[in-house]
Amino acid sequence: MKKVIFLALISVGLFISSAQAQRKAGRNGATFLEIGVGAREVGLGSAATTLANNANQIFWNPAGTALLNDQKLSAEFSYNKWIADLNYSAAALGYNFKNYGTVTLGVQVFGLNNISANRQNGYTDSYLQSLVTDHETSSTYDYQDMAINLSYSKYIIDRLSLGATFKYVHEKIDNVSGSAVAFDFGSIYDVGILGWKIGARLNNLGSSIKFYNQSNPLPLTFAIGTSLYPVSNETIRWMLAADAVKQQDTQQLIFTGTEVSFYDLIALRVGYKFNYSGTNDGGTSERPAVKTTVEGISFGGSIQYKIAGYDVGFDYTYTKMEMLNNTNRISIRINF
User: For the structural domain made of 2-115+147-264, what CATH number should be given?
Assistant: First the structure.
């Protein structure tokens, strides 16, 4: 039964990804949902499909939010200073109802306030004026994206967790807004040797979001991933992780990362996205190659300690960005 459930999820994801493959790049709405949440996850090159027992997995694989029997609560807050001074904050809180599973709530907020606005369109033709959609007159405007996530997850057997997330997505510029709803589904299976896990997730399966007169689909994503610990003892733990990711508006991607932790106190991480980081479109006979992404390598680390019975951790990740500001992410996590 566990094999049937896991393979069924993979099959559904592959079918939907193939069916949507004809949609053109750059046509998705709410693309902030594709930006990685959490310093640890991004430090691993976003190879996060099989990370488990943490509330922040609500933004990746809902099966990973399932808490173990000895865990009661998991919480995490993340902040990312994204390119162009955009602010990205996220918070997640999960509670373990033991035999009834884990319920997790997550919120994402992305945007910028007081952006200078040039509202002079310069049109004198009455027909062109009739097509103008911006009728505001203020000298600045605000831009904000938000998503509210509610997840349920459970260990079906000791080694298999399943999860699903319902999300409400809202985008707003000035007084114009658009909304959509979507679902995430995921599974994680522990093979039982070397901490080896395999997982699958399907994200943002839902309605399109309409903004002004343009309707766009959410960034549907399907991924399968694996992680294992070649070395694991009381002194050092070394993890390798890799995800094969198919986003609706990109080609096939491979996310990879590694983490080394010492005494479960200090950890160091490096991550890289193959077929994504530093890639270009190959150019044409009339022009040179143009970079299709500006994101490079990510690296960071963490410190964690037990305080008054709570496991408290602080994570940091730095991501190299070509031509634009490099990005910094911080996360604070608490488990009890």
Answer: 2.40.160
